[in-house]
Amino acid sequence: MNKEIKKKQIAILGSTGSIGTQALQVIEQHPERYEVYALTALNKVELLISQARKFQPEAVVIANEEKYHQLKDALADLPIKVYAGSEALCQIVESQPIDIVLTAMVGYAGLKPTINAIRAGKAVALANKETLVVAGELINELAQQFRTPILPVDSEHSAVFQCLAGEIGNPIEKVILTASGGPFRTCSLEQLQYVTKVQALKHPNWEMGAKITIDSASMMNKGFEVIEAKWLFGLQPSQIEVVVHPQSVIHSMVQFEDGSVKAQLGLPDMRLPIQYAFSYPDRVASTFERLDFTKCTNLTFEQPDTKRFRNLALAYEAMYRGGNMPCIVNAANEVVVAAFLRDHISFLGMSDVIERTMDAVSFISTPTYDDYVATDAEARCMATQFIHNL
Predict the structure, then answer these.
(1) Distance between CA 333 and CA 348 in Å, rounded?
(2) Which DSSP helix (H) or strand (E) runs through 334?
(3) 317-336 burial, b if ≥16 CB within 10 A, otherwise e?
(4) Fewer CB near the last or first residue (10 Å), C or N of the chain?
(5) Helices 271-279 and 155-164 sit at what angle, rounded to 10 degrees?
(6) How far apart, in whole angstroms, are the C-alpha atoms of residue 7 and residue 322?
(7) Which residues contact 69 (CB under 8 A, 6 or more apart)?
(8) Is residue 240 a contact partner of residue 229, using CB atoms and an 8 Å limit?
(9) d(Cα 225, Cα 240) in Å, to the nearest integer?
(10) Within 10 Å of residue 112's Cβ, how many Cβ atoms?
(11) CA–CA gap between residue 211 and residue 208 (Å, rounded)
């Protein structure tokens, strides 16, 4: 006799973004296992309305309070609780029935709701890399204190997580994170001076939101993943290596102290790591496209060039320096990416402003949560000034 599976109640922070919409596809494929408890969005109210009508969650939150009435009126015929504002977003994750909170919001805004979810004892499926970049030490301390699992959703960290399954007690020599190299992998430094946002938004392998696509093109995304890996897997900075792998078939690797290397392979499809985070420690059937080795005959690897892609070097520097330096880098990066998307700064100019901000903002070696908040504000202000003075 089949034992009935208790459905996991899932809150999706950022349900209208790339990760959020793919998570809903995973849930839709397994209605016997997962149920949507809450959906949240920043601005995309029309998509949030259609998601709410389809999945019938207990609650929805729109962070932009100006769109509250539009959302509430559109869902008036349904028994769905409707909230607005960033504080409501931080509170919804504490709701008692929730089992898993998927943090798929973009940027620093994901930090506070993630902290609240951990304090409320919810498993966190982490797709918001900025949370660990900004406050990795604090997040790890809270996760230990409240015995809350943090399940990586980034394809690279999910790959490492999967490679470590069954390896308890076996020391890691190093973790090797793969990078596609983005759309400008073969461009010269001179060519990079003139790239446009239209070119930067065309990623060769992955479908992602604008912010993460620009970060991927500049390799800041990989720099953030390096910092994340430090906190997720308890590594020293020297144990984390990046290798450029243009095909994006090997998602990352782990080398053990005996020299053996384990790799996780698959097609570039974010639904697989999302589903693994939801089902962990189990694997459940999926209809995702399979890797066909008859078509996958050329896997290549090369060293990243940190002279052309300085953001990767800046992220490593921030990780080695520690304290609030990764928080400074993240804030400056959010400001320069927004400026680049508005054509207010050049592609290479982004690295210049980040580096100047790292030098200008007050360094704190052991920051508190309040220090992170103050650092974020100061770094954004400095980076904005540097852009205006270009």
Answers:
(1) 12
(2) helix 325-341
(3) bbbebbbbbbbbbbbbbbbb
(4) N
(5) 50
(6) 40
(7) none
(8) yes
(9) 10
(10) 17
(11) 8
The residues, ordered by sequence, that sit 6+ positions from 346 with a Cβ below 8 Å of its Cβ are 193, 340
Tally of residues, the chain: 390
At 220, which amino acid appears? M
DSSP letter string, 370-381: HHHHHHHHHHHH
Cβ atoms of 221 and 215 within 8 Å: the answer is: yes
- 44 close to 16: Cβ distance less than 8 angstroms: yes
Q: pLDDT 10s per residue in the chain (390 long)?
A: 455 678 999 999 999 999 999 999 999 999 999 999 999 999 999 999 999 999 999 999 999 999 999 999 999 999 999 999 999 999 999 999 999 999 999 888 899 999 999 999 999 999 998 899 999 999 999 999 999 999 999 999 999 999 999 999 999 999 999 999 999 999 999 999 999 999 999 877 766 778 989 999 999 999 999 999 999 999 999 999 999 999 999 999 999 999 999 999 999 899 999 999 999 999 999 999 999 999 988 999 999 999 999 999 999 999 999 999 999 999 999 999 999 999 999 999 999 999 999 999 999 999 999 999 999 999 999 999 999 998
pTM: 0.93
Contacts of 318 (CB under 8 A, 6+ apart): 223, 227, 325, 326, 328, 329, 358
Q: Residue 163 corresponds to which amino acid?
A: C
Q: Which residues contact 279 (CB under 8 A, 6 or more apart)?
A: 33
Residue 149 amino acid letter: P
Per-residue exposure over 119-157, b if at least 16 CB sit within 10 Å of its own CB, e if not: ebebbbbbbbbbbbbbbbebbbebbeeeebebbbbbbbb
Amino acid at 263: A
323 in the Ramachandran plot: left (φ > 0), alpha (ψ -120 to 50) or beta?
left
C-alpha distances in Å from residue 330, one per residue of 73, 88, 326: 37, 24, 6
Instruction: Please state the separation of Cα 22 from the chain's center in Å.
Output: 14
